[in-house]
Amino acid sequence: xxxxxxxxxMWGQIExxxxxxxxxGVMDNLLGDWTESRRVGLMAYGHRRRGDCTDxxxxxxxxxxxxADILDRIGGVTPTGxxxxxxxxxxxxxxxxxxxxxxxxxxxxxxxxxxxxDPCALAETLEKGGVGFTAHVVGFGLGDADAGALSCLxxxxxxxxxxxxxxxxxxxAFSAVATAVSEPEPEPEPEPERPEVxxxxxETAPAGSLVRVGWDKTLDNRNYVTIVPAGADAGxxxxxxxxxxxxxxxxxxxxxxxxxxLRYMTDEGDKVLGTAAIEITEPAVTLSGPETALxxxxxxxxxxxxxxxxxxxxxxxxxxxxxxxxxxxxxxxxxRNKLRAPAEPGLYELRYVLEEGERTMASQAIEITEPEVTLSGPETALxxxxxxxxxxxxxxxxxxxxxxxxxxxxxxxxxxxxxxxxxRNKLRAPAEPGLYELRYVLEEGERTMASQAIEITEPEVTLSGPETALxxxxxxxxxxxxxxxxxxxxxxxxxxxxxxxxxxxxxxxxxRNKLRAPAEPGLYELRYVLEEGERTMASQAIEITEPAVTLSGPETALxxxxxxxxxxxxxxxxxxxxxxxxxxxxxxxxxxxxxxxxxRNKLRAPAEPGLYELRYVLEEGERTMASQAIEITEPAVTLSGPETALxxxxxxxxxxxxxxxxxxxxxxxxxxxxxxxxxxxxxxxxxRNKLRAPAEPGLYELRYVLEEGERTMASQTIEITEPEVTLxxPDEIRAGTEATIxxxxxxxxxxxxxxxxxxxxxxxxxxxxxxxxxxRQTMQAPEKPGLYELRYVLEEGxxxxxxxxxxxxxxxxxxxxxxxxxxxxxxxxxAEIDVGWEVETESGDQRITLARGNQAIFTWLxxxxxxxxxxxxxxxxxxxxxxxLRFLxxxxxxVLSRKVIKVx
Length: 904
Prior knowledge:
By secondary structure, the protein is mainly beta. It contains seven helices and 72 strands. A hairpin with a 6-residue loop joins strand 15 and strand 16.
């Protein structure tokens, strides 16, 4: 199929002639003699409508003898629209049935894809999915930069891409494509023979067992090995396992005996690639148990010849169908276990059943007989009480004893307990008086094995308390005739439904206690309530009255201060006194304290000035019993400190108008939010103190902050400046020896001087000492030779304020002398630098070398022998890092000078 570009860009001219005319004029170069033996068609795109990415037309359908028709019709193509070349090639391939037969497409285009498709991705798809698909591409008038976007169509499908820049080159390109197309289509490669897989397995295996199967190769992880009857059709399968990335696995044998085949099969097409014969034999299973067992009991069973752990032993009615079961258990890796007998007496069978196919492999008859159970309890009991019960002949620990209404159906229960391994226990009586039954019930089948009648009678309970009580107070209550310790006494609104409660307590083993009155005055009831059924057994009316509470405090207080409060008429120690915004809802609080057994205390004022209320609030119901207005006013606080301070130093601060000892003075970044702080101290009962400056220089604020609400009451600007710290020490020293370190400009006595390897992270430290009030100190050098750094570090922020490089030499190394080196401290990777020197002595072999910092003395990366006047030029490595320049007297094996240089 020829796919011809009819897009608007074909009107472009080459040497004064439109590209469409040039292409139409040399078309016969493409349509040579080869068209007589091939089916050829013509497709064009972009030749009918503007801006339409679907403008693709098959002008001449592929067929025999179409050359003349194509040459005639090509002249009617008028460039008009877009360039949907990817869709056109895809449509041409589809019309040629490229997935079933070899297909060739010749694309002629002067432009790139303009309809958001990727021709390279299409080429991948056509190559993978096609049967001998080839695309040849002629790029007409395309620049080199654009050619790659089209050439991939040809390159990825085995075709040719030919660029043409004028009429002559286009004619030559068409001729070259004609030659390529005229070559006979290659014969499709024969389908490779399917590889054989060797399958291995045992010659025999018991029915239902796991069979270990092997295979010598895995062709696809989703292939599978199955077991089928000998001679089964290809494609059939029974139990199977996926081969995954293994070479063996366990396969479940069928339940039926006979001759079978193990087969390795492909997941795609279910083709058989390997087989092995196997005979499935009858398992030798035995089963034994007692001849009789009691209904519902656990009885012992033993077996031999277990086939698979998920086989099971069950009990079924005599003659039941295979696959039936009542109670059962899996055999797992055991040879004995216990099985639960059914609830109904009669003739049954024990069976060993294969999980595979549910075939019965062994069985034994068993008779289930009636248990002899007795049950005894009192003839009467009080509603809700615990009463004693005894029994004999327990069948199973999960059987239960219950109490039910007389004549209730089997399986009913009100209160109950499991018998476990006991012969006596206590049972809770129902709440309602009447005639009931005690029953011993098998868990298995919920059959009643023994019963006894019992009458539940009304308890005689009395309850007494005061006729009145204050809202929220604890008042005394007494009672007699308690039925159960979890019964409770409560107070409820007069006439409330049974089961209602406001405040309550459990009676336990007491006959008196205190109960909290509700917060709201009114008529209420005291009630004794059974936990069982929540029945009210006794009650008494009580009136809850309003307490007489008074509250007094100052008319004004400063924001954040502690001010005195007094009160009378305390109701309960957990009532509280609070301060709230004027008119706030009941239950609101800002600051508060519990009244306990006091009549006066201090309360913290809020941080914000304004009108507030003091309130006495009952804990019960959070009702306000007394209140007083109070105005919170602004404190007059002043704060002063220096205009500047050094980073990390302690500087003096003074203040007046302290509100509370837990207020604090802090330093924060200029403009920081209220409540921010860096370093701070509590004001306590002082008016001056020292504050630590931050580690970073900049503009900051000193602030006096109320602890209450973290409000700033006073502030002052302060500038933190950089300290001028110097640090000196030796340039080199032997390992383990002592060096004298000196410094100036110490900021704080807890600042420290440390020695660390060059390049160690900020904040690292090795050996160190605090500077205290000194200006010099000795320090022992590290034991490991190398390049190190002395650092003066602020304790505040762990900032390094001064550094001094020091080289630790081997303990027996000669110290450098007799020369000096001059070179830059730092330079760029690969840079050429000048190195100068001064030397006191001469010898036959003096060199300047460049080495890594940890490199042995007489080894180097680069060396220059001294033969003239300084300086010499030396090229630095490309790799950043710490390096060392060395002046070596090689003849005398001496190090005369060295200098560190950083490449960055």
